[in-house]
Amino acid sequence: MNDVIKAMKERRSIRSFKPDMPAEADIEQILEAGLYAPSGMGKQSVITVAVTNKEIRDKLAADNCRIGGWKEGFDPFYGAPVILIVLAKKGSFTCVYDGSLVMGNLMLAAHSLGLGSIWIHRAKEEFEMEEYKKLLADLGVEGEWEGIGHCAVGYVNGDQPEAAPRAKNRLFYVR
To answer: Which of the 8 DSSP states describes residue 60?
Structure first.
């Protein structure tokens, strides 16, 4: 079986990460994979913010937890030490689709490097907050951005989950 298809079939969402920081070279490879995601009309209007700073990561987790309505102290990133935030330029007709494709590339790249990942929502709500708009401005990012998702990345704590059986009646052919 082709390695890419094999990775697609084996990758699972991880809900328990070790606190160990992945190698910077691995994070860079994952980020680069995101740059190669398809985009509407080739506009490449998606950016990714890599958060490895524990203080900022923990603040994001606390805000995400609050937005999600969970009990204080819950970590919606499941202990992952790296959070890759995918944002798309507001006003782009394909921003959600383009960002979703980036998220898929990030998760497949992480899996191919022996790391786990999971897509966590609420980036949209976070990046409507002034403090996160300021974070982008402090990074030199100009314009209006919509949060698409967080790709939490790290070493899997435990066994790789098994794939659930695939639902039936999801493929149709017109021949």
So the answer is: H
Q: DSSP string of 158-171?
A: SPPPPPPPPPSS--
pLDDT for the residue 1:
87
> Which residues, other chains included, contact 19 with Cβ-Cβ below 8 Å and sequence gap of 6+?
79, 81, 154
Whole-prediction pTM value? Answer: 0.96
Residues 104, 106: Cα–Cα separation, whole Å: 5
How far apart are alpha carbons 141 and 1 in whole angstroms?
41
Q: What is the pLDDT of residues 28-62, one digit of tens each?
A: 999 999 999 999 999 999 999 999 999 999 999 99
Domain extent for 112 = 19-154
The contacts found for 24-30 with CB under 8 angstroms, 24 or more apart, are 26/113, 26/115, 27/52, 27/82, 27/153, 29/109, 29/113, 30/84, 30/106, 30/109, 30/110, 30/113, 30/115, 30/153
Give the count of domains, the chain.
1
Query: What CATH number is associated with residue 126?
Result: 3.40.109.10
pLDDT confidence tier of residue 114, bands split at 50, 70 and 90: very high
